[in-house]
Amino acid sequence: MGKVTGFQEFNRELPQKTPVAERVKNYNEFVGLYSDEKLNQQSARCMNCGIPFCHSGCPLGNVIPEFNDAVYRKNWDEAYQILSSTNNFPEFTGRICPAPCESACVLGINKPPVAIEEIEKHIIEVAYSKNMVKPVAPLIKTGKKVAVVGSGPAGLAAAAQLSKAGHTVTVYERDDRAGGLLRYGIPDFKLEKWVIDRRIQVMEEDGIVFKYNIEVGKTIPADELVRANDAVVLAGGSTIPRDLPIPGRHFKGVHFAMDFLKQQNKRVSSTSFEMEEIIANGKDVIVIGGGDTGSDCVGTSNRQGAASVKQFEVMVQPPEKRTAHMPWPTYPMVLKTTSSHEEGVDRFWGINTKEFLGDENGELRAIKVADVSWEIDVMGRPMKFSEVEGSEREIPCQRVFLAMGFVNPQFEGALQQLNVALDERKNVKAIEGKYRTNVSKVFAAGDMRRGQSLVVWAISEGREAARKVDEFLMGHSNLESKDAVN
Ligand code: FAD
């Protein structure tokens, strides 16, 4: 490594964030950039560890010590080449990845890990500023046509890789713009949308065609798409939200998180929407669900001027540090505090929602909850909960956002028309590593196959599925595989 003693000399530091009081006034990103000196020091913290577990901690197999070293030497071309050889979209992961690579960092055993995610973001931003991010499609085309259904990170990664292999790629998207949940799920304060537009422009220059406002299976029949192409990649995401079918679910004011988040994203981008407006301003908000979607509802509610924000989770509070049951270097299930939590929220753990209560006008006025205690198995995993006697109470609120995850992809439409087989969780059945469904020529990737997951996994699946499509079409593939890296 460039500076072998760097990890002893420098502490982990993250770029400055805009103070809470300022940043909640708008929807802009609020994490700054390192100075040149700080970036140099942070990359110097990557030590010459014998086995860099960060490679396997990252679902993309990012070659992290090598790009850290190139950053330390200020060799931006090399850093960008290394990073982009495994990750098509570091500008997304560098902003919103929970960074399993950092959990696997060897330095993290007894010191704070290398700030890999931030370094990644800096490499790609420098690469854009120095005009290094250019179309990569080969001059020789294969003459094969591939359709990609869905323009989330999985579909985009598949499209980018297939185009790189010389195939003619068309992406079909039912929304009016590309990005999937990056566009209309994740708020701008985590990922401003010009970041997606900038990438789509490069992909279009690459020759990839994007067709918007087309729902495959509705606007066009799915089998027609299969007939007209040599292969199809299904990357439609996991879009059916988990509901809470308890008494009072019908009261006005109880909404799915995605309905709330999507329309705020549309407001920020001045895009019209037809659904009833959902506004948290002046309301007492309760967010049910403790994951990324829940914390995005917290951040959005605070920006809209909610009177109060609470977040409920039925699970017990996770530990602050790894326990013996989550050994390094696996991704630890520890308490996550996101930037939205810094902005104001009361978090409650081990609490079960039993009923929504409304007034005579059908408006939500409170929820009835009770504390729960969990039976824990020998591995420390919560198995079954029971209500704590005498803990039932009402908590006043006028807005509830249900952020309890997504159960499976939408079956009606494309999947139904194609007769695609599903697995026991009702995701598209296509074995990991093969990505091929039961339908001839049809592959699947991302949340639609894997179930709800992370952006980094969606990109990884899109890349790996593209390689399998390329092998199917050409008999072999020269596209990179993460198995070759690690
Ligand atoms: P999606 O991103 O869901 O994209 C699927 C696309 O397919 C959509 O654009 C959809 O419109 C389109 N589509 C579906 N059916 C059709 C059809 N029939 N025809 C045409 N188009 C179709 N992950 C992280 O790593 N970090 C985070 O901070 C994070 N925050 C999140 C916040 C929220 C609110 C949510 C909901 C998720 C978050 N995630 C996060 C998870 C992450 O966004 C997903 O795992 C990832 O986007 C999945 O990518 P995908 O391409 O498989 O699907």
Automatic annotation (TrEMBL):
It comes from the Bacteria. It holds the Pfam family Fer4_20. Residues 144-462 form the FAD/NAD(P)-binding domain. GO terms for molecular function: iron-sulfur cluster binding; oxidoreductase activity, acting on the CH-NH2 group of donors, NAD or NADP as acceptor. Keywords: Amino-acid biosynthesis, Glutamate biosynthesis, Oxidoreductase. One of its GO terms (biological process) is glutamate biosynthetic process. Pathway: Amino-acid biosynthesis. The keyword Amino-acid biosynthesis applies. Residues 23-130 form the Dihydroprymidine dehydrogenase domain. Gene3D superfamilies: Alpha-helical ferredoxin, FAD/NAD(P)-binding domain, NAD(P)-binding Rossmann-like Domain. This is Glutamate synthase subunit beta. The lineage of its organism: Bacteria, Pseudomonadati, Bacteroidota, Sphingobacteriia, Sphingobacteriales.
